[in-house]
Automatic annotation (TrEMBL):
<protein>
    <submittedName>
        <fullName>Uncharacterized protein</fullName>
    </submittedName>
</protein>
<feature type="compositionally biased region" description="Polar residues">
    <location>
        <begin position="26"/>
        <end position="35"/>
    </location>
</feature>
<feature type="compositionally biased region" description="Low complexity">
    <location>
        <begin position="45"/>
        <end position="54"/>
    </location>
</feature>
<feature type="region of interest" description="Disordered">
    <location>
        <begin position="26"/>
        <end position="54"/>
    </location>
</feature>
């Protein structure tokens, strides 16, 4: 697979993504889930204190935040995650069309589309079941987080020398 030249850098300020040769992508998706301090508190379901760090979109354990969020807030956050992933895929396509020095293999885009389709199906299924039980809701949200993290790592990987770990919540 072709890799970018060292002079090629792509920055999408809307996503907070910077891709540069020889470096791992830095994600700054801080508006994906609301801060725990801004959500309605549920004392019976609280897990941890309200100063928990915000979800950064890289497989971080968000169950602490889920306990302090309403079902509607979680569902809205999941939909935003899907949109961010779709925007990243469109940005990669634009990069391929506009930059001669930057090649994104067609096979990778096809594979990414398949992963995104699976993620969309999982998202609809998860949102439909969010209101059933609190523990089921946490399970669905965490599994969707895994799916989105894997998609992002795959989309950002360029060449065999780049390996990215997805950290799964315990």
């Amino acid at each position: 697979m072709d890799r970018c030249g060292s002079e090629d850098t792509f920055v999408d300020h809307g996503l907070g993504v910077e891709l540069q040769e020889g470096s791992q992508p830095q994600w700054n998706i801080r508006n994906s889930l609301p801060d725990a301090n801004q959500c309605r508190r549920r004392p019976s379901n609280s897990r941890g204190d309200s100063s928990s760090s915000r979800y950064n979109g890289l497989g971080e354990d968000i169950s602490l935040l889920v306990g302090s969020m309403s079902v509607e807030e979680v569902a809205a956050a999941l939909v935003r995650e899907k949109r961010l992933t779709q925007r990243l895929l469109r940005s990669l396509r634009r990069m391929k069309r506009k930059k001669n020095g930057l090649e994104v293999a067609n096979a990778s885009l096809v594979e990414s589309n398949l992963h995104l389709s699976k993620c969309n199906f999982f998202l609809r299924d998860s949102v439909a079941r969010l209101g059933t039980k609190q523990d089921r809701m946490r399970y669905d949200v965490k599994n969707l987080t895994f799916q989105l993290s894997e998609i992002r790592m795959m989309l950002c990987a360029r060449g065999d020398k780049h390996t990215y770990e997805v950290k799964y919540p315990s």
